[in-house]
Hints:
Layout: E1 9-14, H1 19-30, E2 34-39, H2 43-50, E3 60-64, E4 67-71, H3 75-84, E5 90-93, E6 110-116, E7 122-129
Parallel strand pairs: 1-2, 4-5
Antiparallel strand pairs: 1-3, 3-4, 5-6, 6-7
Amino acid sequence: ADSDGAPPTIVVYKDPQCGCCTKWNDHMRAAGFRVQVKDTADLDGVKNGIGVPAALRSCHTGLVGGYWIEGHVPADLVQRLLAEKPALAGLAVPGMPIGSPGMEGGTPERYDIIAVARDGRTRPYATRTGAQAR
């Protein structure tokens, strides 16, 4: 929760035409987040400005609790990040893996959630398959 006890607010930058981003926003709302959507045609500018590594980029970027959230990161992992408050810049799910939140349908893929330190170093944060992404 935010300092006022309200659910955390995540500001999500996305392309106005992207449907999977809208589904991910719905996933975050269902998990209790307040979602503020910022449609933009300059996603690269947003990502460059906050330091999302090019190799880890996806179709949308969220900002919450001093962290960036890149792509289809499951809500429970965002909640864990906010609860544990590690010294990270953010979490990323590169690309658009089938079965991740917002990318349901088809044969779920195994995918990694990557933790990115403020100095740019990366490490695995979690691994999921579509069936585990709630």
